[in-house]
Amino acid sequence: MVSKEELAPHVEDVSRALGNDIVKKQKIDVEKELKEYIEVYRVKDLSTAKRSIVKKYGGDIGALRAGGGVLRTLAELKPNEPSVDFLCRILTLNPKEIEQDGVKKRIHYGILADQTASKSFTVWNEEAPFTKGDVVRVRNAYTREYNGEAQVSFGVRTTFEKAPPDALPAVAAARFGEPREFKVRDFRDGESNVSVEARILSLERREVTVGDQPKPVFSGLLADETGRAQYTMWHEFPIKPGDAVKISGAYIKGWKGIPRLTFDERSQVEKLERSKLPALKDLKGGNLLTIEEVASRGGAADVTLRGIIIDVKPGSGLVLRCPDCKRVVQKGVCRVHGQVKGTPDLRIKAAIDDGTGALLAVFGRELSEKLTGRKLEDYMRLVAELANPDAVRAEMMEKIIARPMEVTGNVTADDYGLMLIASSARMVEVDVQAEARAMLEELEAV
Q: How far apart are the first and last CA of the chain?
């Protein structure tokens, strides 16, 4: 059974194509005609039904709206659609001044929603045809792609019709209107409308090209008492390292399992003068987690793990790298640059187990030298003396296997499991007596 609300835009479309004179003179009940085609004749394509009715009464088939005037839900919208019709509630509305072809222009942007999703929108007009809270039937809007999602644009062809407030369930405002509060440890890929209170640990600026225009983008690390995360900022908010801020209206996009907070001019950034957040000095070190906790998150940024080195994998030791892309060269061939003269380097690929799980940790030259106590040049002489490249890996195994280690870095995830790219590492000494006391206390508690 098709509802009156669903049929309304189609009834209007057919009535316009027929013309008021035909409708009145022939006393056509367009809604009844459409229902008959759908429910009696079982016509599944509304466009076919509408063309048939217009043709039957001698109307102008060419006047029917492109795309059939079908009301879509916001969840159904795809990027780069030339014409879309939908019913929505305006959740936020903000003016903005831009410069176009050397001329300053006022536009509007905000968030709209229905019961299925929320979308950002832009009105390319001096005045917005609605206000915050309005329920609006939109026709002939179009979509563009923004960060992989459909963003709605209202142009000169777009028309608006205000609908009663109860035309959309209140859930549209309740679900999407207020940002949801998150702690850093709860960041997951795909979350939207995120609010978080955190301290900015670092901030770097670079320029990218969007269209033909250079655009500044900022990135770095932020943290709260539960963890640290990477962020990307597509607007120059007045913040600096050390600031405690509340970020609202952001979203989370993961890369190889590492969640990254992303926000732009549609988001709100508020400085917190009296924050409950820990001081900057207390947030400098990576959060200590277990491998099981990292696995449950699917990856993490700048975390610290403690475990035992249980294996040194093949590919460890003395390697040759392409001088251009730094990839490891196999038999003098780089898979990108072909035949090259490799540059000697040192690395360790070690499996670390902390009792809750295991992962692969990769250490570059500096950390490899620190952990083994030998320089690259020492290992190059060793290989030359023994004429055996595997001697380096063998010695590394003797020095670090079964040793407790504390390592910090980013943990990524793919089909092969977890991998940590180490930024710092150190061997740790275990207090055997303290460990024994803790074990006894745990056994007595049980």
A: 62
User: Could you tell me if 408 and 423 are in contact, meaning their C-beta atoms sit under 8 angstroms apart?
Assistant: yes
pLDDT (0 to 100) of residue 426 = 92
Q: Cα–Cα distance between 37 and 43 in angstroms, integer? A: 6
Strands 204-210 and 194-200: unpaired
Compute the Cα dihedral for 269, 271, 277, 278 and give only its sign. Answer: positive
Angle at 189 between CA 187 and CA 190, to 5 degrees: 115
Cα angle: 261, vertex 241, 199; to 5 degrees: 55
Q: How far apart are CA 161 and CA 175, in angstroms?
A: 23
Name the DSSP class of 123: E
- Indicate yes or no: pTM above 0.85: no
Is residue 372 over pLDDT 90? Answer: yes
**Distance separating alpha carbons of residues 137 and 159, to the nearest angstrom:** 8
Nearest Cα neighbor of 251 from 97, 146, 112 is 146
Residue 197 predicted with pLDDT over 80: yes
H or E stretch including 8? helix 4-18
Residue 264: pLDDT band with limits 50, 70, 90: confident
* Burial 113-137, CB ≥16 within 10 A → b, else e: bbbbbbbbbbbeeeebbbeeebbbb
